[in-house]
Design goal:
3-methyl-2-oxobutanoate dehydrogenase subunit alpha; binds thiamine diphosphate; alpha/beta; Rossmann fold; five-stranded parallel β-sheet; 11 strands; binds magnesium ion; disordered N terminus; 400 residues; 14 helices; DH_E1
């Protein structure tokens, strides 16, 4: 092995102790273990450039969605800024028949699955309970219950096993999710049943305002061994390393080797969501350090050095990103509010009397706002009515 070749656990001056094939300066380092997973990409400039385009487009979409929230067009948005390489590198390693179970921040993974742009924001605008058809893209809609998707993925993987298929289930989770009981139970089942599932943990250093050091005093990857899972730590801001490591984990699962835990070390450069202000709990120096490890700039430097990323190509990619952002914006603004009473649809498999009563009461309440209502008898949800027994205000409506 020459000095430029590395093996699976490597330190490259970042303190990350993780697989890294492309360092912060954009220099590529060979790996006896991982280079084989990049052979296709190394032979085809179009594939190498597509990873770049993907990262530029999803960063642009993320910025547009954040702006849409600030302008009142979305209720909330959880930005992915900084996690483009982790999500694009892993997402592009998947096959169409693999199935993704994600959390709420994996917009870039959804993009690689072919989710229509407007479908990325429907839930966040509050006009639907669910963003897209999971079976059309083999990706479940985002899970907000932290860690629950790891159980769904493990169960799905056991189904794949029973079918004798060679697809893989992939669960995306965060560093904070590692403290959840669901996740630990999923690891036990996945390990003991040898289920074809990849647990892809994006350690973005924060769970809202709690640093990862409050989730674990040891590197997250070290937990894997205790469950009997192979674990690999990868520089999550190195799109090539993420692609290679994910390919290897998928290959293990497809060929009967069972589950793998991947810890992708990355950084949430923005707020937890648009409702959060990280300046209240984060040292600005930390953001500065991670800005130096930006996933896109190192790949840009690398491609430019190879002569692949010319000024024309850069302009073309920026054009793709701008058009995608315009499509997202136009689609978002055109989304109409559903009739309010549809909130009662699909809550239960069968209609029943209590639900019908709640629906009727809410319909009556809404009628109070109808055009032409003179205010008499207008239901005011804040005021309520006075309870004669106690003299206190009792809420109106029967839907309690
Ligand atoms: C079971 C459960 N507990 C708590 C929450 C509230 N909550 C929402 S996001 C979050 C932090 C998750 O952090 P992490 O897993 O690191 O994912 P990240 O937001 O960094 O992508 C918490 C605790 C929740 N949604 N579900
Ligand atoms: Mg996190």
């Amino acid at each position: 092995m020459t000095p430029s070749q590395v093996d699976s656990r490597v330190v490259r001056g970042t303190g990350l102790d993780a697989v890294q094939l492309l360092d912060e300066t954009g220099a590529r380092h060979g790996s006896t273990q991982y280079d084989r997973w990049l052979e296709g990409l190394d032979a085809d400039p179009a594939l190498a450039l597509r990873l770049y385009e993907d990262m530029i487009v999803v960063r642009r979409l993320d910025a547009e969605a954040t702006a849409l929230q600030r302008q009142g067009e979305l209720a909330l948005w959880p930005p992915l800024l900084g996690q483009e390489a982790a999500q694009i590198g892993s997402g592009r390693a998947l096959r169409a028949d693999d199935f993704v179970f994600s959390s709420y921040r994996e917009h870039a993974v959804a993009y690689t699955r072919g989710v229509a742009l407007v479908e990325l924001v429907r839930v966040w605008r509050g006009v639907t309970a669910s963003g897209w058809d999971p079976y059309a893209v083999n990706m479940a809609t985002p899970q907000v219950i932290i860690g629950a998707q790891t159980l769904h993925a493990t169960g799905y993987a056991m189904g794949i096993q029973n079918d004798g298929a060679d697809a893989v289930a992939v669960a995306y989770l965060g560093d904070g999710a590692m403290s959840q009981g669901d996740v630990n139970e999923a690891f036990v089942f996945a390990a003991t049943y040898g289920a074809p599932v990849v647990f892809f943990c994006q350690n973005n250093q924060w769970a809202i305002s709690e640093p990862v050091t409050l989730q674990s005093t040891v590197p997250l990857v070290d937990r894997a061994a205790g469950f009997g899972l192979p674990g690999v730590r990868v520089d999550g801001n190195d799109v090539l390393a993420v692609l290679a490591v994910t390919h290897e984990a998928l290959d293990r699962a497809r060929t009967g080797g069972g589950a793998t835990f991947v810890e992708a070390v990355t950084y949430r450069m923005g707020p937890h969501t648009t409702a959060d202000d990280p300046t209240r709990y984060r040292d600005p120096a930390e953001l500065e350090t991670w800005t130096g490890r930006d996933p896109i700039s190192r790949y840009r430097t690398y491609l430019t050095g190879l002569g692949m990323l010319t000024a024309d190509e850069e302009a073309r990619v920026q054009g793709v990103a701008d058009r995608a952002a315009a499509e997202l914006r136009a689609g978002c603004i055109a989304l109409e509010d559903p009739p309010a009473l549809t909130i009662f649809d699909h809550v239960y498999a069968e209609p029943h009397a209590a639900l019908a009563a709640e629906r009727a009461a809410y319909a009556q309440y809404l009628e109070g706002f109808a055009d032409g209502a003179d205010g008499e008898g207008l239901a005011d949800p804040a005021a309520g009515t006075t309870d004669p027994a106690t003299g206190t205000d009792a809420p109106t409506g029967g839907a309690r």
